[in-house]
Design goal:
With 214 residues, the protein is an alpha/beta fold. The protein contains eight helices and six strands, in the order E-H-H-H-H-H-E-H-E-H-E-H-E-E. It has helices spanning 17-30, 37-40, 48-59, 65-82, 91-100, 113-123, 146-155, 169-177, and strands at 4-7, 105-109, 131-134, 162-166, 181-185, 200-202. Strand 2, helix 6 (113-123) and strand 3 form a beta-alpha-beta unit.
Length: 214
């Protein structure tokens, strides 16, 4: 029985993976290295510190992880603020339906809190959410379940009564490890993601009907 709904953000609320891919490629160029989108796809759903720790080692970057992230995140926020973009189709309607049914709503995202807040500000969506958790604020990021378990705790709902929508392999793994029901949203812009562990596969957010979950 649905008692809370938790959203991943990147690739679910905002079609942001192209932004991430572009900025991450440019960040690597800034530091004198080349990386492809295909190589970056395996990191979708992971936190910045976890991703850049691996990349720093693989590509032998001289900068610290903190220095890399500082450049990447400032570039990403500047890009986000300057582009004309709307939430993914169906998101506003789903949020409204959840609110009308008095279902608590959370965000459990691997992005830094500052980026999550910039997205919610840009789309004027902050008022819909009862809690926001960044994967950087828990012990382990996705695919570990920590960020989803923390969101459920803040919402005061048993994880087994939470429904999640995710677009990434690591995110689906995190939701299922938390004991939650998971919709796997196929977003082609999120790269080749294995969503087979999700309970349901959808190709549009509008396929989620709140009345069918109550």
């Amino acid at each position: 029985m649905l008692k809370a709904f938790i959203f991943d953000m990147d690739g679910v609320i905002i079609d942001s993976e192209p932004i991430h891919f572009d900025v991450d490629v440019q960040t690597m160029k800034h530091f004198g290295k080349e990386i492809t989108q295909e190589e970056l796809e395996k990191f979708v759903g992971m936190t910045n510190p976890e991703m850049w720790k691996v990349i720093k080692e693989e590509y032998q970057l001289q900068q610290t992880v903190a220095e890399i992230i500082e450049h990447q995140l400032s570039s990403k926020i500047t890009l986000l603020q300057g582009i004309q973009i709307e939430p993914i189709e169906g998101i506003r309607e789903l949020l409204t339906s959840l609110k009308n049914n008095q279902i608590p709503i959370g965000i459990a995202s691997s992005s830094p809190r500052v980026f999550i807040e910039e997205v919610l500000k840009k789309f004027e969506l902050a008022s819909y959410f009862d809690c926001v958790v960044s994967g950087e604020e828990v012990n382990q990021g996705k695919p570990a379940p920590d960020v989803y378990l923390e969101a459920a705790s803040l919402l005061g709902v048993d994880p087994k009564n939470c429904v999640v929508v995710e677009d990434a392999k690591h995110g689906v793994a995190a939701a299922k490890a938390a004991g939650m029901t998971c919709f796997g949203y196929v977003n082609e812009n999120s790269g080749h993601q294995d969503l087979s562990k999700a309970d349901f596969i959808i190709h549009g957010i509008s396929e989620i009907k709140v009345e069918n979950l109550l």
